[in-house]
Amino acid sequence: MFLDMVQRIRTRRHPTLRHGPTLIISTIATFFGLLTSLLGCAGILLNNRRFLATYAFPAWLEFAFLVIPGHITGR
Q1: Domain ranges for the chain
Q2: CA distances to 20, 24, 49, 64, 67 from 52, in Å
Q3: Is the pLDDT of residue 17 over 60?
Q4: Which helix (H) or strand (E) holds 3?
Q5: Its pTM surpasses 0.70
Q6: Residue 75 has what pLDDT?
């Protein structure tokens, strides 16, 4: 009886394992978004056009990272 319970627990998947790739990509997107926002804020505060021009490319990458989890879960 105890072994049957253990077997049922082992075969049951945790809810976070089902959405593993989505959670991982969302976490990466959050971290990348924080870094991108720091670059953008530095460009605004320093009034530096080079920082703001460099900020444009990571901002597009951040947008892609935010769209990917929705695309994965919407399939």
Answers
A1: 31-75
A2: 34, 28, 5, 19, 23
A3: no
A4: helix 2-11
A5: no
A6: 67
- Only one residue has tokens 């720091």, namely 38
Do 25 and 65 touch, CB atoms closer than 8 A?
yes
Q: What pLDDT does 51 receive?
A: 86
* 64 φψ region: left (φ > 0), alpha (ψ -120 to 50), beta (else): alpha
Quickly tell me which residue has 């901002």 as its tokens: 59
Q: What is the pLDDT of residues 19-68, one digit of tens each?
A: 677 888 888 899 999 999 999 999 999 999 998 999 999 999 999 988 98
Helix axes 49-74, 20-46, angle to 10 degrees: 160
Please say whether the beta carbons of 32 and 67 come within 8 A: no
Task: Return phi, psi of residue 14, to 5°.
Answer: -70, 145
